Amino acid sequence: MTALVAEARATTNRVARTFSIACRWLPRSVRDDVYLLYLVFRTLDDLVDEQRPEAAARVGALAAWAAGGPGPRTREIEVLEAVDRRTPLPRAPLLAFCAGMRADLAGAGFATEGDVDRYCYQVAGTVGELMAAVLGTRDEARARPAAAALGMAMQRTNILRDIDEDLGGGRVYVARETLRRFGPGSLEAGRREALLRDQIARADALYEEGIAGIPLLCSGRWAVSAAAGMYREILRQIEREGYGERPGRPVVRPARKFLVAARARA
Predict the structure, then answer these.
(1) Would you say 218 and 168 are in contact if contact means Cβ atoms under 8 Å apart?
(2) 163 Cβ partners below 8 Å, 6+ apart?
(3) Which range (9-13, 154-158, 224-228, 262-266) has the least confidence?
(4) pLDDT (tens digit, 9 = 90+) per residue, 52-111?
């Protein structure tokens, strides 16, 4: 397991720089388990995004384990069992995560904003719930929905950050009803300001809901506050760059990230 923790930490540092900064402020007692959970979800997400032949089977193995049934013993299962022995993991979020991965594999798209919210919960809100389980909560009934909202906010931020990259890969994560409402070409660079204003407002509302639940965590409150602040800053960067006036991925400079993180922790 020591080698897996090292791999998980390296993976986080390599592909999730904002998250990795926040992880440094987690208590040692939970930090490794957070890295391990991230490795599981990142591995499956990458397999699905890349449409790898083994993706469906690996997602299916996780779903079988979460449902308590027989299934293949993949590396993801071994990692989750190790974490679960230290902190019991709720199974419903794991099953919902698998449903989101299957939706990505099917590539059906999203008709309504409700469909987008459901997807964001499945692939990211669930991760928030599981992270909250590892960090511990003072009031699960209130903390768990807030953790889900924070994960959903971050996923909606990903969607807006990656519009051009996704379009290049033939993927659209904006609801069809929203595209109709803002008209033809509303995803094109230089023509997406009204759409982005609408979508940013939706993400900001989820951040407010999620951040309100951070004080309910037993540990890691500073780290989660920093992560929320840094990730939310991507929305502010989109605004500073003119709401997609030019194509490309908005990037928050490291110095700005640390400033935002320090303010969030304060």
Answers:
(1) no
(2) 174, 187, 192, 244
(3) 262-266
(4) 999 999 999 999 999 999 889 999 999 999 999 999 999 999 999 999 999 999 987 899
Which residue segment(s) compose the domain that 40 sits in?
2-265
- CATH number of the domain to which 24 belongs: 1.10.600.10
**Can you read off the two tokens belonging to residue 68?**
């308590």
pTM above 0.85, yes or no: yes
Give the whole-angstrom CA distance, residue 48 versus residue 28.
31
Asked if 238 and 197 count as a contact pair (C-beta separation under 8 A), the reply is no
Q: How many residues does the chain have?
A: 266
| Cross-strand bridge partners of residue 137 | 217
What sign has the CA pseudo-torsion 153, 155, 159, 160?
Answer: positive
Count other Cβ atoms within 10 Å, centred on residue 105. 15
Q: Which DSSP helix (H) or strand (E) runs through 259? A: helix 254-265
Return d(Cα 56, Cα 53) in angstroms, integer: 7
CB-CB contact of 169 with 247 (8 Å): no
In sequence order, the 6+-apart residues with CB closer than 8 A to the CB of 252 are 18, 230, 233, 234, 237, 260
Strand partners, 217: 137
Determine the Cα–Cα distance for residues 127 and 65; give it in Å rounded to an integer. 17
Tell me how many degrees the CA angle 34-39-266 measures, rounded to the nearest 5.
35
Number of domains in the chain: 1
Which pLDDT score is estimated for 1? Answer: 62
